[in-house]
Amino acid sequence: MPKRNDIQKILVIGAGPIIIGQACEFDYSGTQACKVLKSEGYTVVLVNSNPATIMTDPETAHRTYVEPVTAETVAAILAKERPDALLPTLGGQTGLNTTVELNRMGVLDAYNVELIGADLDVIRKAEDRGLFHQAMARIGLEMARSSIATDMEEARAAAADIGFPVIIRPAFTLGGTGGGVAYNPEELETIAASGLEASIIGQIQVEASILGWKEFELEVMRDKKDNVVIVCSIENLDPMGVHTGDSITVAPVQTLTDRQYQRMRDAAMAVMREIGVETGGSNVQFAVNPRDGRMLVVEMNPRVSRSSALASKATGFPIAKIAALLAVGYTLDEIPNDITGRTMAAFEPALDYCVVKIPRFAFEKFP
Known about the structure:
alpha/beta
């Protein structure tokens, strides 16, 4: 499919300031996307609250608003600029949460703004822990035993039923914000309260512990023709219990058999189709029991993530750029591969080398 000509102006939401649980490597992705949308002839309007980014340089977008990334601010910009479309998937969790709030306020309908990259149903099904659990059950994929809680009473009951330790996962958050592992009722009180406060819908998932299991991620892209490519497979050196963003990671995966890897690939593609991502990339996370090989789906992010930046660097496959092109109507078999110059983006990258990411903790900034 050729690019869409029924939209001319696109508003891109940036990730905001570089703080724990918010911006991460999204500047890298957002800059890629803004530049490619400009080169395709679209008018690009950017909102980002962090002036110390490449994304907010004057040449990146046609118009840049260095304003707080909140629903109220973005609503005012929508009223002034009247864009045809909104691209929320490059602003990380901030972009998705702001978009959900804009829809709740009725702003998107009022100004007739179309969501591209991921629609509201996709965002809800992926980010709402309860809906995601139901979706995985429909396609026969196993997740860790869990219960959804919207208040402390439900959280206590869920933990008592499942048994300690339990993992607390808030909905609609990034970087493990508000979540953690509770080993006893006292820790549950603190972590569950923090998670309920951090989630924009006041929801947490109380999950049976799978601490010590191996953790894997697949970066997946899908287009409107149902072409699906696994851009990169990533294995966490640290087991489940260490957040993937804080873990030493290796690409491609090292300790799976080919049969296990193919099973994981098939599962990731099934997740993409069930959730409905059809114009962009997602990050799907799995846990594997090192004793018996049992595989569980952990979660998926219907947006550019920290792992997307790593996968792009590791493979040379510009995930954010291609996600932006998919959002405006192209399909993977129409987008040239920048590395080879001869093949299309529908060809999966093959690595004959290893890439290792080692996190650097800035203790001088966060003593």
